[in-house]
Amino acid sequence: MKFTAALLALTVASASAFAPASPAARTSSALSMAQGETSRGAFIQQSLAAAAALTFLPGNANAGWIAGSPEVINPKDAEVDRDILASEAVQKALSNVKNYKSEIEGFASTLASDPQADIGPTIRKEFDFVKIRTDLNTVNSAFEEDTQRGTDRLIRAILQDLTELEVANKQKPGVPRSEIRLNALKGKIAKLCKAFDEYLAFSV
Asked: From CA 140, how far away is CA 121, in angstroms rounded?
């Protein structure tokens, strides 16, 4: 019964989120879009809500954007346009993607030295969602359509994992990070590193 009630509440909340907005709300939304106001906090909340919804749906215990997905082919079988891959724009984007991965690996070293370190400022400074998505999609342009079906999923995995990392890092002021939260944060870092590795394997 508790699960049913929770699922019903989640369904109602989800339905409300997609209900038609009032004229006043639409006007406010239009003004915000015109001013280019994008809320990183809203993006995080929406991502977490989507993840929560998937968690409660039957048959999704092993769901997720993973390399084991049928659409993510073996990198050895990937169809890559070597001329596009070798282009200046793609090589620059590829270099940026590798740097993102190095930054994530650096977080592991930082936490090893200081378990209470706040990596949030670095995440917000070095990991701009728009730029990361642009770099990943630029590299993606070197892959043929069938390959892109899988790499598109890996791109979404990276963005989702990055969102989860930022959330996992948050800690109440003056409250030390517990061992459980520290291990959870380290797990998010390892997961994100793996996601980058899986994506970069296609550009070798």
From this structure: 28
Q: pLDDT tens digits for 117-169? A: 999 999 999 999 999 999 999 999 999 999 999 999 999 999 999 999 999 99
pLDDT at position 11 over 80: no
Query: Structure tokens of 85?
Result: 């891959």
For the entire predicted model, the pTM comes to 0.66
